[in-house]
Design a protein that fits this description.
Mean pLDDT: 94
Structural class: alpha/beta
Number of strands: 9
CATH topology: TIM Barrel
Number of domains: 1
CATH superfamily: Metal-dependent hydrolases
């Protein structure tokens, strides 16, 4: 077998494991799986917040290994690895074949992609460059979408649509002052960002995040940011914002507001979730809530069943027109057989300091549910199977898996007046 054939076989074995877990938990029959898969293939599926699949090329492995040998700082190597995983499809056709197969199996047509990863401005700019390159290098596969119509057009052409989302700006560090943040909002709009967080867990210039005990809401400056995002046509995203910050944003915004990847707090109790009051306020703006596939946010040991329970609850609270799915999970292809990726050096390479103790689980069984289980990104067709089994009509499922977020994009653009 060639290296590509070996990697493809390993990947399909992984996919089979995820699908078998989802099917078992759903208790789906052959007929139910077939009906769900056929429906999923007909729908325009948009992940309301996620990460594009990753695949390392041989060149990518060589590049990271060289950085390790040259004793780069752990954080620098981690960023380079993110670059190489995202842009592997540029380097060789084997990587692209694996990448395209992941999208084919998942049946995802569009992704609101975390292109501007926070918390620093430097990381956000690097992420923008990373995914601009991805779209530029494979125009036959990717179209960077600036509107709902761009998404629909790309899908009609047989391509996939990527909508840039940013954790930052205006989220955390790297700005001189508030005027600088407002200026960067325009710059990131020119980069093509159309979704943006107000806060990321902690307090910033704009307001309090969901882990702040004070729950102070938007600052005076935060109201200026909301108005600026409205004028630019950037969707205000509140998944990591505190209760009062979310409610303030809903009261102040002249366009729909979203929480693209969250859970129902009244079900799980997790503070990254949204209360019924917050969800109703978001629905009142015309916005939507995307339910995430993070197991620990859904339940102590969350599965696809909990995902569906949260969707049911959100629909009961907000109505069918205001609920989506924002997975917030990734999926990776097996690395090349050679060269082998060297071990990462010790050191802090991630920014979990923005989380409080107890917010994230360190139980490997919990993480496995989103990496090798029923909440894996590759299980998207089974989300449709599950919705069909819960009694949702085809028209309703079409809204949940993509239609609602495209409607919101349309309305945010319309409210901006074509700026």
């Amino acid at each position: 077998m060639t290296d590509l054939e070996t990697r493809m076989a390993r990947m399909h074995e992984h996919i089979g494991e995820c699908h078998a877990r989802a099917r078992e938990l759903l208790g789906a029959t052959d007929a139910q799986v077939q009906a769900g898969f056929e429906l999923h293939e007909r729908l325009l599926v948009c992940d309301a917040f996620g990460f594009t699949p990753t695949v390392l090329s041989r060149l990518g492995v060589e590049r990271v290994n060289r950085a390790i040998a040259e004793q780069w700082q752990p954080g620098e190597i981690s960023e380079l690895l993110l670059d190489m995983r995202a842009t592997g499809i540029r380097h060789d056709d084997d990587a692209f074949a694996l990448y395209a197969e992941m999208y084919r199996v998942a049946g995802v047509n569009a992704t609101v992609n975390t292109a501007g990863v926070g918390p620093s401005l430097e990381r956000a700019v690097r992420g923008a460059a990373r995914f601009t390159q991805v779209c530029d290098c494979r125009p036959e596969f990717w179209a960077k979408a600036l509107s709902g119509d761009d998404v629909r057009r790309a899908c009609h052409e047989g391509r996939h649509a990527m909508i840039f989302s940013a954790n930052n700006p205006p989220a955390h560090v790297g700005f001189r002052d508030g005027f600088d943040i407002l200026g960067w909002l325009e710059i990131f709009h020119r980069f093509g960002f159309r979704v943006m967080h107000l806060t990321y867990n902690r307090r910033n210039f704009v307001g309090d995040g969901c882990t702040e005990p004070s729950n102070g809401g938007l600052s005076d400056f935060g109201f200026e940011v909301v108005a600026m995002m409205n004028r630019l046509g950037i969707l205000i995203d509140t998944p990591h914002s505190g209760v009062e910050t979310t409610l303030d944003a809903c009261r102040a915004s002249q366009a729909p507001v979203a929480a693209t990847h969250t859970v129902c707090r009244d079900l799980s109790g997790h503070r990254r979730g949204k209360t019924d009051a917050q969800m109703r306020a978001i629905a009142d703006t015309g916005g939507f809530v995307g339910i995430t596939c993070i197991p620990y946010f859904l339940a102590r040991h969350g599965t696809i069943v909990d995902l569906l329970d949260h969707i049911d609850h959100a629909v009961d609270v907000m109505g069918i027109d205001h609920v989506g799915i924002g997975t917030d999970v990734a999926f990776s292809a097996p690395p090349p057989g050679e060269p082998e990726l060297l071990p990462m050096p010790p050191g802090r390479t991630r920014w979990w300091s923005l989380w409080q103790p107890g917010d994230l689980s360190d139980d490997p069984k919990v993480h496995r549910e989103s990496s090798h289980g029923s909440l894996s990104w590759i299980c998207w067709p089974y989300f449709t199977v599950g919705l069909l089994m819960r009694g949702y009509a085809e028209e309703q499922i079409a809204k949940i898996v993509g239609g609602n977020i495209l409607r919101v994009f349309d309305e945010v653009q319309a409210a901006a007046g074509g700026m």
